[in-house]
Design goal:
By secondary structure, this protein is an alpha+beta fold. It has a single domain, classed as 2,3-Dihydroxybiphenyl 1,2-Dioxygenase, domain 1, CATH 3.10.180.10. Helix content is 19%, strand content 28%. The chain has a four-stranded mixed beta sheet, covered by helices on one side. The chain is globular and about 40 Å long.
């Protein structure tokens, strides 16, 4: 019997990785440790996530896209802060039928990041 495998890592890439490190550290309070020898920064895990890993979904799209969703206390406040820091709202808060309230923004490098209301 095969057991579902959990999502245990993600990457956010961009032309200016230092700017992205600063952006996400300030926006979400992430602890980010840079390893200059390999030009890679490790994001420490968050607090309060699901113990069995992260679930996901697969959807039809005109272009390939992977989106990471971050749980936050206030979608509106987080979107406003992201915009003040150079991001752009691409999906204002919306209730998913039978699910959570979500939103999305584009970071300064153009990556789309999802938000889920806690």
């Amino acid at each position: 019997m095969t057991h579902p495998r959990p999502v245990v890592h993600f990457e956010i890439r961009g032309r200016d990785s230092k700017r992205l490190q600063e952006f996400y550290a300030e926006l979400f309070g992430w602890q980010i440790v840079e390893n200059e020898a390999i030009n890679y920064a490790v994001i420490e895990h968050g607090i309060g996530g699901p113990p069995d890993g992260v679930g996901g979904g697969i959807a039809q799209s005109d272009v390939p896209l992977v989106t990471v969703y971050v749980q936050v206390l206030s979608l509106d406040e987080t979107l406003e802060k992201a915009e003040r820091m150079g991001g752009k709202t691409v999906l204002p808060p919306v209730d998913v039928p039978g699910g959570p309230t979500i939103a999305q923004f584009r970071d300064p490098e153009g990556n789309v990041i999802g938000l889920v209301k806690q």
